[in-house]
Amino acid sequence: MAEPRVLFEYTGHLPECPTWSEAESALYWADILEGEIHRYHLPTGEHTVLSFHEEVGCFALREGGGFIVAMRTGIWLADKHGLLQRKVCDNPSNPQLARFNDGGTDHFGRFYAGTFWAPGDYNGALLMRIDNDLTPEVIQCDIHGHNGLAFSDDKRWMYTSDTPNAVIYRTPLDEQGEPGKREVFRRFKPGEGIPDGAAVDAEGCYWSALFDGWRIARFSPQGEQLEEYRLPVRCPTMVCFGGDDMKTLFITTTRENMEPEEVAAYPLSGAIFTLPVSVAGVKKGPFIAR
């Protein structure tokens, strides 16, 4: 069985939102708490960092270059250098209590971004979508901490997870990609880890980073666990597919809220890992503004 390996010598604070650029042969990711978007060019090993004035919960590459970026107080369009160009919308939650978290694009090139409700006193987070004409819309509520966004290759399902509530949902989509009523895909028991960021492969299986679980796992379209891969760190945060054949899984991890003793014992916490897999992943397209 293949084992995860470190991509390169790097550890971040809260790396998330790994995003593969096929055109550039480069991996992008955010370090949420540092307010950064990173780029690692695999052919040359060049690593560059863009800095923003707020936490970067998630982002997507834009058609034609640049980014759409969900920061704490709102969502912006930015150029390839990280210069903010246009504010798309405010954070519809109270930004003092809920920052943006996981997100990405669907098959229509629309951008989804969810929030994380920090107080934890009720499910106060939400999932919103930015349409191609830049119109914002709240899609789902009743969430504690949104994660796990992924879309099946047949365009029939949207997957999400609520990490603190230890559940993965799936939501049926119509031909225009509009969501129906979400349903439970899988719940997790204490000790299994809780579902964080995710991706879908060409066989319709859902790969989830199991935060606090020391592992990532692959689930069938029916929610049955098919495979798992152990990591040398406790908290993976998200996975994405990339590489020339889309058969490399990139895995981000974190050292957020870890005591110095744990970081010393597990110094790769916050590193990015790669894992060769046998089934190609579904490509994640850019945000398309019209």
UniProtKB/TrEMBL annotation:
GO terms for biological process: L-ascorbic acid biosynthetic process. Its EC number is 3.1.1.99. One of its GO terms (molecular function) is calcium ion binding. InterPro entries: 6-blade_b-propeller_TolB-like, SGL, SMP-30. A divalent metal cation binds at residues 16, 147, 196. The active site is at 196 (proton donor/acceptor). Binds 1 divalent metal cation per subunit. Substrate binds at residues 99, 101. It holds the Pfam family SGL. Residues 14-254 form the SMP-30/Gluconolactonase/LRE-like region domain. Keywords: Hydrolase, Metal-binding, Zinc. Its cofactor is Zn(2+). It comes from the Bacteria. Belongs to the SMP-30/CGR1 family. PANTHER family: REGUCALCIN. This is Gluconolactonase. It comes from Leclercia adecarboxylata.
